[in-house]
C-alpha cells in the first residue's frame, strides 16, 4: 500500500509515492534496451506504465521505475546498459530541468538545485557530502531499497552526473569515482563513462573532486533560467524514508523505531511494514548508517580514536574499538590504513 505524505508519513517519500517525473527515464531505458535484445512489451510487464498515457508531466513511483529497470537488466545482452541509460538522460532524453542547470553560475549552485529537486534527477540514490582535506567527497547510498539493482542504479546515476558535469562546465573536471564492487571485466566501460580515475573495492561508493572545482564558472551562465521547470515540486519532501532513518541513526542514535514512527505520524508497525516493502529493516538501516559513518570518519577523514568515539557517540575507547570491529570487520588502525 502506498504511503501518502498528506495522510500517513510526514516529510518523506517512499518507493510507492508517485513523485518521479519519469517520462525521460522510461523513454531512455526503452531506447537503449530494445536494440540490445529487450522486448518492448516485456520491458513494461509488471510496471503499470502505459506509454500512450505517459507525458513529461506524468509522475510514477520509484517502484514502477525500478521494475522497468529490473526488466531492462534481465533482458539486455550488454553490460554497459546502465551507463548508456545515464548518458542518454544527459543527451537525447535530457529533461528541460537538467538542461536549465547548464545556465547555473557553477557546479556548487547546480548541485544545490539538484538537491532541492532531487526527484527530477537522482530519485534512486542520495548524495551525502563530506570534506576531506582540500577535496569534497559525496558518499552515494541506495535510497529506495532495491538491493539487486544497487550497482546498476549507481552506474546509471554516476554516468548521468559525470556526463552532465562535463556538459555544464564545457570540459572534464577532476573527478574520481570509487565503487564498492570488485574489479569488473568490462573495465573499459567504467573508464569511458565515469573516467580514468575510477577505483574498485572501496568500502563505500564515493564521488570526489577538489573543492575548487565547485566554483569553476560555467560558460553559459544565466541564473534566472535555472530550475524554472521544477518549481511545481516545491511542496515535495526531498528525502526518502530510508534517508530519514539513516540520518536519525547518525544524528540521534538513541531514537527507537517507535520514536521515528511517531515523528512520521504512523505506528511502529506501519513503519516496520513500509521498511519491509523497501527490502530492509530499522535495525539494518541503523547498522548500515553507522558502518558508513565509521568508514568516513576513519578511512577517509583519518580521525583518531578519541575523535571518532566522540563523533559516533561511543562513551569509551575500548567500546569504540569493539564497535568499529563489529561494524566493519576492521580495527580502527586497520580502517585508517585502508585508503590512501
**How do the strands of the widest beta sheet line up side by side?**
3-4-7-5-6
Number of strands: 7
Name the overall outline.
Answer: globular
Structural class by sheet pairing and helices: alpha+beta
CATH fold description of the largest domain: H-NOX domain
Poorly predicted runs of 5 or more residues: 1-7
Measured by DSSP, the beta-strand proportion falls in 5-15%
Give the integer mean of the pLDDT values.
91
Structure description:
It is a single chain. This protein is an alpha+beta fold and 340 residues long. The protein folds into 2 domains: 18-216, Alpha-Beta Complex (H-NOX domain), CATH 3.90.1520; 241-336, Arc Repressor Mutant, subunit A (Orthogonal Bundle). 45% of the residues lie in helices and 9% in strands. The protein has helices spanning 23-33, 40-43, 62-75, 81-90, 96-100, 107-116, 150-169, 187-194, 241-251, 257-264, 268-277, 282-300, 305-311, 317-328, 332-336; strands at 18-20, 60-61, 125-132, 135-142, 176-178, 198-199, 206-210. The strands form 2 sheets. The protein has a 5-stranded mixed beta sheet. A two-stranded antiparallel ribbon has the order 1-2. The radius of gyration is 20 Å and the shape is globular.
